[in-house]
């Protein structure tokens, strides 16, 4: 929250009172601001964007699709082995 977002990464805008204009906001802030607006008007018509089955993250915005939960925490309850990661050979460092 409170992050600077470029126009390539962020397509969401919201009218911010302190700016008296619309500005780019991240998904989390947009959801919070929409919930505040809807709850103050007495209706909650917008579904939770992140939980909507039709929601697709913006491909240029890692804030929309990156998990804040580490992979080890994600699999802690289901599988005792850490997740396997496939890395292309060209990415690996070579000796010499």
From TrEMBL:
It comes from the Eukaryota. Residues 35-54 have a biased composition (Polar residues). GO terms for cellular component: early endosome membrane. Pfam families: SARA. InterPro entries: SARA-like_SBD, SARA_Smad-bd_sf, Znf_FYVE_PHD, Znf_RING/FYVE/PHD. Residues 56-91 form the Smad anchor for receptor activation-like Smad-binding domain. Residues 34-62 are annotated as: Disordered. GO terms for biological process: endosomal transport. This is Smad anchor for receptor activation-like Smad-binding domain-containing protein.
């Amino acid at each position: 929250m409170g992050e600077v977002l470029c126009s390539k990464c962020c397509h969401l805008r919201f009218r911010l009172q302190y700016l008296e204009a619309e500005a780019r906001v991240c998904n989390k802030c947009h959801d919070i601001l929409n919930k505040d607006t809807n709850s103050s008007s007495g209706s909650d018509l917008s579904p939770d964007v992140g939980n909507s089955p039709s929601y697709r993250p913006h491909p240029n915005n890692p804030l929309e699709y990156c998990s804040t939960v580490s992979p080890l925490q994600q699999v802690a309850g289901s599988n005792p082995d850490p997740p396997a990661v496939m890395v292309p050979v060209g990415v690996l460092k070579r000796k010499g």
